[in-house]
Amino acid sequence: MAATPRQNPRMLQFKLVLLGESAVGKSSLVLRFVKDQFDDYRESTIGAAFLTQTVSLDPQTTVKFEIWDTAGQERYKSLAPMYYRNANCAVVVYDITQPSSLDKAKAWIRELQRQADPNIIIALAGNKADLASTRRAIPTEEAEKYAAEENLLFLETSAKNSLNVSELFTMIARKLPLEQGSDSQRGGGRGGSSLVSPGGGGQPGRGGVDLRGGQQQQSQDACNC
Amino acid sequence: MDETYDAIILGTGVTECVLSALLSIQGKKILHMDANSWYGGECASLNLTQLYNKFRPGQEPPTDIGRDRDYAIDLIPKFMMANGELTKMLVHTDVTRYLEFKQIAASYVYRDGKIAKVPSTEMEAVRSPLMGLFEKRRAKKFFEFLQNWNDQDPATHQGLDLDSVSMEKVFAHFGLEPGTRDFIGHAMALHLDDSFMQRPARETYERIILYTSSMARYGKSPYIYPLYGLGELPQGFARLSAIYGGTYMLDKQIDEIVVNAETGAFEGVRSGDEVAKASMVIGDPSYFRKGVNGKDKVRETAKVVRAICILKHPIPNTDNSDSVQLIIPQNQVGRKHDIYIAEVSGNHNVCAKDIYIAQVSTIVETDKPELELRPGLDLLGPIYDKFVTVSSLEEPIDSGRDDKIFITRSYDATSHFETVVEDIHDVWARVTGGEKLVLKKREDGEGAQIQG
């Protein structure tokens, strides 16, 4: 069957930030989503600038998440404003077995509502749902009610047995304003409002400059030796 | 924080954050603290609330110039040279991934009571209103000489040895007028005073080449600037450090630098009743002003006066540029140090739309520092509000080799980050006992991999 010419498939890039108390499983959720792995004794996050993973919404549309981990900077009131900057979406994680972790999640959500882009999509994730039958401390209804009041997406997840992990990210992808995503074929490493020029060189996009592209150009015309 | 680290770093200025990142990447266990609740130390960018808290405690910020969160006002005025060392460091460490940059729209210089664009090529020199017809020809020859210079080819040297002949002699060789020497030496080579004239010409040659190659890179000016303000630079390097395991604590009172009673060697840092131990400390001068163990650790080399000015219009006579660097060479206004004006605007996400932030600064020469800024302030037109500060430029008294207390330098009065990178290299050599800092390219691909 001859395919009728349709619009080119598009890959749209969005910046997603993770927030939540230490040890609720922020990195584990991402590791499950990006690499489908889980490690019972994961150390605190080391060495990850950010990871990327794609979600296909339809044959024509793929969402590429650029996922930023806190790198531990949330621990002592030290998360830099840069972290939220231009974030299109956030996953705020709590641990269903730790009552205090939901309070902490609520504090992060208030912080996002104050600091981040007003249109940011926020998802609340109650992680460690595999322990629901034995160690649950926060009833699903409680978090669900809060999420509804604050207009958040909500799911209980398990990075360990992968319950609802890809569902969570797909749910976010469906809610994203796709017209605002930057075209990842062209964009650089940053989410949201990418200003870098395609393919390097000196032609800036909307007045932005790409240092890396320029570097290659520079090597060609370096003559001051 | 009651733990033992390889190094404790005090202050989150860009110098300290780069060193923190470099050490973390090497696998060192780092504790990085700042007494302020924000990143950046002396080179932070503040929102209006923070700015008013700092300069006018108790006074509410104005409500008629946009939202608080739209502001990121730099405490020091600096731009990055597009081809400079800090740019290379950002590219090498991949910190560029966290930042976006924009060109500064134009580079201006003051001459004979007027301002004009700085010419950076022989073609621009020919068109520049800065020089008369005959001077243009001489300047063209001078720029051609610089562009064609080749160390290996004596035919390009015109009998001048850059390593022994003074810059003054080189200018004289081409018969350049004093005013032309002013703008070349101060607005292109970016010297702060005239001492360069007597030194070998090589240094000035290299600075002019840095200027022209930076200019050639993106076209409008040799300068680039991070969106959301200079404070993004330390934040970017701090994130890199954290990614490699560095621990960050802001808003942390530093009460004591603890040293060994007998040897005087660094042992740790006390905050309240907690003590963090480490084999060395690196910090900005503000943490060592009280001295350590009865010994002075930093000295003042000069004072710099800066006026942060909020404007509702671009600087007059700059072609409505959204950002400029404007240099008033010392001789033009009878001073010994240049006056710098750095302007950015809403287009750089550092203030509300249609607002312009101009910083006027110079090295203090008299006991009325604010008055010294007058020639600069007079070029700005009506000023909506102005914050004037005088701060000390400080440097460490000793290398820190014996007591393992390594102190960085204050951010100087230069208009760019080149000397900051020199300081990073210097501290690195002191910390490592003489190793040269060689940047290794981080692996490519989508960020670094997670290491379990």
Structural notes for this entry:
- The complex is a heterodimer of chains A (225) and B (452).
- Chain A has 225 residues and is α/β, with parallel strands linked by helices.
- Chain A has one domain: P-loop containing nucleotide triphosphate hydrolases (Rossmann fold, 3-Layer(aba) Sandwich).
- Chain A is 30% helix and 22% strand.
- Chain A has 7 helices and 8 strands.
- Chain A has helices at residues 26-35, 81-84, 99-115, 132-135, 140-150, 165-175, 211-221, and strands at residues 10-20, 51-58, 61-68, 89-95, 121-127, 153-156, 182-183, 208-209.
- In chain A, strands 1, 2, 3, 4, 5, 6 and 7 form a 7-stranded mixed sheet that branches.
- The longest helix of chain A has 17 residues, at 99-115.
- Chain B has 452 residues and is an alpha/beta fold.
- Chain B folds into 3 domains: 4-43 and 231-300 and 394-431, FAD/NAD(P)-binding domain (3-Layer(bba) Sandwich), CATH 3.50.50; 57-105 and 301-392, Guanine Nucleotide Dissociation Inhibitor, domain 2 (2-Layer Sandwich); 117-218, Guanine Nucleotide Dissociation Inhibitor, domain 1 (Orthogonal Bundle).
- In chain B, helix 1 (14-25) packs across helix 12 (418-431).
- The two termini of chain B are 23 Å apart.
Based on the model shown, name its key terms.
heterodimer, A: 225 residues, Rossmann fold, 7 helices, 22% strand, globular, B: 452 residues, alpha/beta, FAD/NAD(P)-binding domain, Guanine Nucleotide Dissociation Inhibitor, domain 2, Guanine Nucleotide Dissociation Inhibitor, domain 1, 3 domains, seven-stranded mixed β-sheet, five-stranded parallel β-sheet, disordered C terminus
CATH H-level homologous superfamily name of the largest domain in chain B:
FAD/NAD(P)-binding domain
- What's the number of domains of chain A? 1
Beta-strand percentage range of chain B: 15-25%
CATH class of the largest domain in chain B: Alpha Beta
Instruction: Kindly state the percentage of residues in helix of chain B.
Output: 25-40%
CATH architecture of the largest domain in chain B: 3-Layer(bba) Sandwich
Helix count of chain A equals: 7
Q: What is the arithmetic mean of pLDDT of chain A? A: 80
Protein name (chain A): GTP-binding protein ypt5
Organism (chain A): Violaceomyces palustris
Organism (chain B): Violaceomyces palustris
Protein name (chain B): Rab GTPase activator
